[in-house]
Fold this sequence. Notes:
The structure holds 2 protein chains of 2 kinds. Chain A is an all-alpha fold. Chain A has helices spanning about 15-45, 50-55, 65-75, 80-90, 105-140, 145-160, 160-175, 190-220, 220-230, 235-270, 275-285, 290-315. In chain A, helix 5 packs antiparallel against helix 6. The model of chain A is unreliable at about 1-10 (pLDDT under 50). Chain B has 2 domains: about 10-255, Rossmann fold; about 290-375 and about 450-535, 3-Layer(aba) Sandwich (Rossmann fold), CATH 3.40.50.300. The model of chain B has no long low-confidence stretch (mean pLDDT about 85).
Amino acid sequence: MTPKTAPPRSTDRPLKAVYWVLGKIGGGVFVLWAVATAIFFGIRMIPGDPAQAIMGGPGSQASAEALAQARADYGLDQPLAVQYFSQLWRLATGDLGTSYSLKIPVAEVLRELVPPTLTLAVLALLVAWVLALAVATASIRSGAVGRALASGLEIISAAVPHFWLASVLIMLFSTTLGWLPPVSTQTPAGLVLPVATLALPLAGFLGQVMRDSMLDAHTSSFALSARARGESENGVLLRHALRHAALPGIALSGWAFGSLLSGAVVVESIFARPGLGRSLLSAVTARDIPMVTGVALLSAATYVVIMAFSDVAERLADPRIGTA
Amino acid sequence: MTEPARPAFEVANLNVFFGAHHVVRDVSLRLEPGSCLALVGESGSGKSVTARALIGLAGARSTVRADTMVISGRDVRSLGQRAWRKLRGKDVGFILQDALTSLDPLRKIGREIDDTLRLHTTLSPSQRAGRVLELLEAVGLDDPVLRAGQLSGELSGGMRQRALIASAIALDPGLVIADEPTTALDATIAAQVLDLLGELRRQGSAMLMISHDLAAVSRVADTIAVMQHGRVVESGPAQRVLADPEHEYTRRLLRAIPAGKPRHTRLSPGPVRTPAPAKAAVSATAPVLTASSLAKTFKARGRADFAAVSNVGFQLLPGHTLGVVGESGSGKTTTARMVLGLLAPDSGSVELFGKPWSKLPESGRRPNRPLLGAIYQDPLSSFDPRMSVGKLLADALSSGATRNPRAYSGRIAELLGLVGLEQTLATRNPETLSGGQRQRLAIARALAPNPRVLICDEPVSALDVSIQAQVLDLLDELQRELGLSYLFISHDLSVIRHMSDHVLVMQGGVVVESGATEPVFSNPQHPYTKALLSASPELVTGE
């Protein structure tokens, strides 16, 4: 780093940062409200009686009195507007309610389910980045044939659906080779296949954009200038090309994280892995309104936080933002 | 410096191939320490490839062969990658054209300069940081501490070029190679950068300067080598080459320089396409375009208002050219945009053929839009990349009603002929055309609706001198043939002087001097006009 750098207009920087953070928080609150509202009304459009769900589903043969009691207990007999606002108020005060099907507070369920899903998503994102950068770097080094090969690989892996990839991986590495467990266990080995299933398509997608900008940087005038200063090919890659390649990757990573959360629904079900995704699936099937609301709000909140992170990361990686 | 006269570099029979393409043919050059060799030629002549081959960076797909290739006393023909890297930056400094793209936009200026020191010295980071500041000061940047921490995008073109020079000379290399170091710069800035490079040379560095413009190198070069189609066609002492060129191509390059050539003198070879009817077509004397007290201020959030143009007035007479000259930010383009009705003036007005123009709503201007045409510096970005040449012209001829070239095949052929493009180009995509052909196409498109006035905004600034000469000649012919009036904008004083009947000299949004071209430039009154004149690259032949 160059010492003694005096950034221009340093006096209004802190104030700008405060405004920026306030704006992010405001935007986040708005997103959460919108998600809560959409779920509240959306879930009521699904045919069927929520009271039935509370009593254990259509198979439970609950009596009319019991159903009425359940409606009263859960406030389902109130006018829609009253239900909506009291729901908003409960959510605003941090009360996610009690799961219809599990009969325990939603917050408690989430506390248990968040860590495994987060582990899965974060690992998949990391692996996707490493794979994308590795393929991009290798293809830059290996000329036109390597580039065509990398491009083909990326398109194929970006196009592969999760459920198919999971099945193939299980058949190959569990059934045939017997190297890895087909069902996700608590061991690190149990994480390999689920992470690979999520990471490969994402790596193909990230790789396409990162390889493009890496190639641009690698053949640019500034890379030529660097080489003319005596910089090695590795130096050009590390000091120039990687950073340029990372920019679009960072910009996409916020979105990618969101897609990983939805990908987790499929992957957790296939690998019988505890997590948010699988619980969301069963909660929707069981019409467990508080669970669905809780999971959706949590996903939205995660998304908001990740987007803010990727914004900050983008600003750190690209000093041109905010200075121009 | 004090060592015995060993050439800074010497190559004999240098050949460079890209696959089957033989782009540099038997080039032999020799440069003495402390002197400057200019390698001159147009785009594609192989001059840049020659320079890159000298530092082993001709490209992965190239094959380089030479009988002799010695730099700073070392035979570099068999150097390995590691040895090359030690040479680059330390023994040879390399300065590329257009520092905006030649400095990494994501890294601070100071770090780019620091790289040279980091790679070749064992200085500590703090010693290097001190040296970076010294270098920035040495290349004439104000406030080095501030500059070292800025990004290339935050600096002006001249400052960027200086920073790039600083990174190339950080280790006092015995040889500096500068590839078009001033091409992207305004004249006064270019003159300063050339002075800076001249200063380096006085300190003992040898310099290989690459340019398409003989005038630009005439004041610094000791020897000149002229390249065409990959060969050196002529070389010798600068004075001799400039004053008494032997090769036809050198004469063509010299002829192409607009400086000192009176109006209507042809700059390019070839027969005059049409006998000029000497403005017979123009009998009226009422101005075609009148601008009075134009002003435009841009408001930017968090910054002071920027008065781009204030109190600009002029008249454009039929069949005449009004030249507008000034540097970046002088308000030339803002003025042009107001004249075109693309930007509403804050005050003042534009009248077209004596009738209100800028004050009309767009719907009121539309019927008279065909009267005004425009051509720009970068024609390619103004063409829809999915449209062929024929479709582009059909689109312009029909005012956007159709893009079917067959509907206008006669007029398209006529327009192509008018601007000297072959008829077979009609089916081509503009991307496949050369820079000169693209500008001819832009002119053809501007002429499609039969305009009376053309606004030419830096129409030749992106072109080589020899192509520039052809386009300027074409514009001159068209003006006389069709009786057109030009509002001609350029930062290049020689071009303006060659093309204009009247001139406006603009600085900081204000007209500082105006009048008939020759009186203004032969007897400039304003200091800025004088500064522009002295910075303008005239051919210096030494007499």
